[in-house]
Amino acid sequence: MRLRFLTEYHRKKLLKKAHLPKPLSQYLSQLSRPLADNVNLIKDLEFLVLDFETTGFDASKEKIISMGYTVIKNLRILPQTSTHILVNPKQVLTEKNVAIHQLTDEELKQGISLESAMDRLLLAMTGRVIIVHFDNVEKGFINQACRQLYRINALPMVMLDTLKIEQKKRQQTQQQIKSGGLRLFALREKYNLPRYNAHNAIQDAIATAELFLAQIEYMGKKETLKLKQII
Amino acid sequence: MEIEGLEMIDFFKLTLPLDSATSTQLKSLLTKTEIAYRRKGHILTIKPDYLYLVRKGAVRIEDENEALFSMLGEHQWFGYSVQLLPYTHLCQEDTLYYRIDKAYFYALFADNTTIENFFTEANLESSIQSQNFIKKDSLLSNSVLSMSRSNNAYLVDKKVSISEVAQLMHKKNVTAVVITDEKTVCGIVTDRAFCTKVAAQNLDVSKPISDIMTDNPISIAHYKSGVEAMLLMANSRIRHLPIVKNEQVVGMVTAADLMRKQSHNVVFLVNEILVSNTIEALEKISKQIPLLLQNSYESNMDQHDITYSISAVGKSINQQLLKQAEALLGPPPIDYAWVVAGSLARSEQIAHTDQDNLLILSDEYQEKLHGEYFTKLTHYVSDGLNACGYVYCPGDVMATNQKWRQSLSVWKSYFKKWITSPEPKALMYASIFFDLKCIYGEAELLDNLLTKVFELTESNTIFQSHMAANALHYTPPLGFFRNFMLDKNGANKKSLDMKKKGVVPIVDIARVYALSNGVRSVNTQDRLRELSDMGGMSSSGANDLIEAYKFINSVRIKHQSQQIKSGCLADNYVPTKEISSLDKKHLKDAFRLVTNMQSALGSRYQTSILS
């Protein structure tokens, strides 16, 4: 698999660099585990399901304001691992963002710096496959943060996107996709998952994690399903 | 872990018995909870170390014989009983569930007896009993095939025209047909399609039925239970399910079929009454009425809906007896109206009471020609009612009494006499004969009579005053110092007569205002609402009376429901010790309000000039 090869190459190249911060070097050295995809069964892997709230979509201009994540192990979500990190973006929020995320400037001032937030995130990502819903946002902002903090161009990751998983499934079965039909809440309804009112990074991460469990369940053959079959 | 605002915590708080846990405990519980998801049809592996909680979906528990033991939905637990571990836990739907470490759970709530007791074996036994009790309910134990009213589903080829199908459905009196293509099922058409697709879109009815059918209908296997059919209907938002056996459609089950099968439900009882051909069959059904009252009360039904349901059953029994009589005696030679009086007419019945009924015959009536037919008819019905617990009226206000079995003209002359020359006996009749409802036969006969009656009452102020004075006969049992004046009624020494002294004064007030303002409704709350709307009574006065009526009646219903539960005969004497102190306070307020409204009535209709 070409993607895996590139990621592995990238990982090894980065590890040769001197003076990498510890969380990053640890993350990179453990990345070999999710990357060893020939033997990786889904049921044996650990996943980190991730959701960011940001001030906008353009990672080069906008900021991360909160990160939420939770762990999946043995194909069960572990709520005790759920984490919500508020990031202080050192910039005033526009009213529109406040309305969506319900986070006010005051609350964000209590947030930690992007650097500490990335340290914690990298630690959580270590040795795990990353799952997001619609990877453009999280991938873009993680890479932007790495450029800014560690002066590396992009972070090698093994990332799954629940939106792409659904897209691929529908293409295979030639189902039509209605506009908005791939949004998180619409997909959840399709899998008989509960409707949540809260809209924040942590609740959305759990919502995405539940959707992922449902998608895997629907693929069948859970005992023998391999990571490379769904990536 | 930062879990502020996690929906899981909110979900826990709404789940029994966790509602009694503290927030700290719930957060702690979260650390030992895992979330999992299984598809419909999957059999769950239950491990003894965990408690399981359904978050979304449904889990079906089956015993060794694959018989349904229990069906669990959101907020319900499984895996807490060792005895049930060998049972099959099957996902009835796609299910999201929580798995919680059992040892941790019990340690966490070691001090909370509510939670501890919830999962103890004792509780399990009662839950098994209640589940077994549910099992006996016809809805769960019977297969869908046995409960579909017409086991025959009508199959129609897809090329048949829309109009032909409409005619077939009309003729066979069905609400849906199954559409086939070369004998295999390809669609379904329900009566709704004729509204939403044919009429609303002005479709050409000569087109094939396949144009309006719903493709690939959802069906159900013949051995499935009523509950499963209900769940399937609710989840798919449909009301018709073709029943399938060996890939062949063998019947159709509708939402109405399932509704009919729920016993002690008013729709069920009325439906049973409608298919009873003998007095004995009706007698058997009428024995369920106290249970209907008790169940309705215990399921928190509104008092108005309770009395309405009980009255609906009473009316159906009257109607069915008349149908039986007509079947026996042949069609009636002339038109007649079967009219009920009193609480049944007002739809305010709560327990079995005396029967009050009368017959209005068309003016073609001739004693020699028709007398025998109607004597037999009224006796059949009156005897039937007596057998069903609606005992003979001690005052003989029954259609069996020739005096109350008269032609329209004679009835008009009766009322004219009562209204123009009111005397005590006339007024007594008036209070009975001014709450009338035709429940069988030619309703026009009663309408015609009432039009005449209202012409007379609306203009006759002297009669109104007499009626008002009559309405002050019973007063609420409230003493000078706002204490209850108790009745010394045999065994119930210290009790309040909630009928005569509670409900009757309000019913009487509403009747007087209704008669003098031309309001033709007979239900007390309806009368008061309409009076308020048309200005015959101040809206605050009307609303206050409605609230007082509701409250007094609910105390009465609660009392009767408890009597029925403990196996006693229901009566209207409520011992004061049965009433909570808060209810006593409300009751006094309600009584005082009625007293005030009575004195207002007195001065409005100048009753003092009569005495």
Spans where pLDDT lies below 50 across 5 or more residues of chain A: none
CATH superfamily of chain A: Ribonuclease H-like superfamily/Ribonuclease H
Strand ordering within the main sheet of chain A: 3-2-1-4-5
Low-pLDDT segments, ≥5 res of chain B: 125-140
Task: Determine the structural class of chain A based on helices, strands and strand pairing.
Answer: alpha/beta
- Give a quick account of the main beta sheet of chain B: strands, pairing sense, barrel closure: 4 strands, antiparallel
Morphology call of chain B: globular
CATH architecture of the largest domain in chain B: 2-Layer Sandwich
Work out the number of β strands of chain B: 21
DSSP helical segment count of chain B:
24
Number of strands of chain A: 5
Strand content of chain B: 15-25%
Principal-axis shape of chain A: globular
Average pLDDT rating of chain A: 85
Helix content of chain A: 40-55%
| Assembly state (oligomeric) | heterodimer
In terms of DSSP E residues, the strand content of chain A is: 15-25%
CATH class of the largest domain in chain B: Alpha Beta
Biggest interface, chains and residues, is: A-B, 27 and 27 residues
Mean pLDDT of chain B: 84
List keywords for this structure.
heterodimer, A: 231 residues, alpha/beta, Nucleotidyltransferase, domain 5, 16% strand, globular, B: 611 residues, alpha+beta, Jelly Rolls, CBS-domain, 4 domains, four-stranded antiparallel sheet, four-stranded mixed sheet, 48% helix
